[in-house]
Amino acid sequence: MMSWTAARVVPLLATAATSISSLSVAAAASNSSTSPHSGDLPSDFLTQLSQWREHHLSHPPTNGLGGNGVGPNAVLAWILAFLAASVSSAGGVGGGSLFLPILNLVAGLSLKRAATYSSFMVTGGAASNVLYNLLWNRGRVLIDYDIALLFQPCLLLGVSIGVVCNVMFPEWLITALFSLFLAFCTVKTCRAGVKIWRSESCAASAAVAVAAARHNENKEPLLVLLPAGQDGDQAAAGNGAGFPWKDVSVLVAVWLCFFLLHAFIGDKHGKGMIRITPCGIAYWLFTISQVPFSVAFTAYIIYAKRKKQLLRNQEDGKANCVETKTETMSSLILPLAAFVTGSLSGLFGIGGGLLLNPVLLQMGIPPQTAAATSSFMVLFCASMSMVQFILLGMDGIGEASVYAGICFVASVAGAVLIEKAVRKSGRVSMIVFLVTAIMALSTVIVTCFGALDVWKQYNGGAYMGFKLPC
Questions:
Q1: What stretches pass through the bilayer (predicted)?
Q2: CB of 204 within 8 A of CB of 426?
Q3: How many domains does the chain have?
Q4: E strands within 8-164?
């Protein structure tokens, strides 16, 4: 049975997740002037809501109180960002889908500027989560570096291809696909959480029965040790081998190669480290060169992984070798899943954390390992975008750093809170349910904002079909 601490923590995290959306809308509504009453048709409501949103973005709330001080909107945005980062960190997702509406509606930033700030916030939260898992997690190895190694090259390649598809696909199709995909993942993740919950309940009942039988036979104190989830598997995955410097070095090399390619390519307006004509010969050469880079890195990682496993089998003996989850999978399953995840991430224009965690859970990765590994991979993806924005001369680096610092602290709080809840209750399924809540909230936010944008384009007579990549 869940302990009283976990019973209080889970509703608290769920309430925090749902309050992010409601408080954002309430804070934005307080800045609007009047709400004229029109007809009861849904089209009239969407038109009025779209007009209010345009008015709010064209007249953003001031952050000062008659000077350079911090205004109430900035304070409220900080509070909501803290809640969003703590909940996202506890669930092992980046949180970009929650940061964007907070920065857009409450802080009054344009969507373009909010996207740059969001990369800082996701990087700060992921860095905090990774440092916590490495330094203060009581010696347990939660990050699966084999998964991170096999995922990262194809994940970054998929993001690049997804971005090209994002330019070609119409807005209404991207919004519809994203909403359906998130809804599907929400249902699948919730079912996985229910399955884990039931298995934990059965294990807890068996532990109570064993403790009761021992008490009746030996008159020992009734002491029930609830199962702590996947701690045994995580400890076995680590084997006390210390920090894997070689694996992290390979990940950094992958990061540097893709970062240089993206920095040379630049954005869609041709703004990069060097002047390259968008969709010119050099542009496509740099873009296509990502494919051999990904294939080469993935082939090397698979070869090194198999060689390491062969040496370990020869040293320890085949009978004594305990295979981890990733070792029982086909070597091509993880890169393929990473490529699909990255493509969807680039297509939908979001960070990979919201998609990585559900994918890892569906592959049978333990929830705590999935959350820690997802945060580790999100750190590489988000930091690449952040450094690119800095090199391209973005405005407001100081303000974005403040938001990143808030998310850094909030992520530690969320990680500590969820770890205590898991240790007290022995149920790692609460992480799965928290991811489900974040995905459900993101589905509502994305659907509402996407519907408004599509409605605005439709009323404005914009082209609603497919476009060329250039």
A1: 75-103, 115-135, 147-165, 172-189, 248-265, 281-303, 332-356, 376-394, 400-418, 430-452
A2: yes
A3: 1
A4: none
The helix-helix angle for 397-425 and 429-459 (nearest 10°) equals: 140
What is the average pLDDT value for the chain, to the nearest integer?
75
Residue 464 within any structural domain of the chain: no
- DSSP classification of residue 207: H
- CA-wise closest residue to 148 among 326, 415, 397: 326
Q: How far apart are CA 15 and CA 9, in angstroms?
A: 10
Chain segment 92-119, per-residue pLDDT in tens? 777 877 887 788 778 877 767 887 888 8
Q: What is the largest CA-CA distance in the chain?
A: 82
Domain range for 353 = 4-220+227-459
Nearest to 400 by CA among 412, 414, 385, 411: 385
Q: What is the pLDDT of residues 334-351, one digit of tens each?
A: 888 889 888 888 787 676
What residues contact 378, with CB distance under 8 A and at least 6 apart?
93, 94, 122, 126, 351, 352, 353, 356
Do 276 and 282 touch, CB atoms closer than 8 A?
yes
422 falls within a domain: yes
Candidates 423, 378, 347, 425; CA nearest to 182 is: 347
Measured between alpha carbons, how far is 363 from 158 in angstroms, rounded to an integer?
19
pLDDT digits (tens, 9 = 90+) for 390-415: 876 778 888 999 999 999 999 989 88
Q: Report yes or no on 320 lying in a domain.
A: yes
Higher pLDDT, 36 or 317: 317
First to last CA, the chain: 58
Q: Is residue 445 part of a domain?
A: yes
Closest to 156 measured CA to CA, from 332, 343, 296, 300: 343
3-state secondary structure of 46: helix
- By the 10 Å C-beta count (0-12 exposed, 13-18 middle, 19+ buried), 189 is classed as buried
Are the CB atoms for 89 and 414 separated by under 8 Å?
A: yes
CB 243 within 8 A of CB 365: no
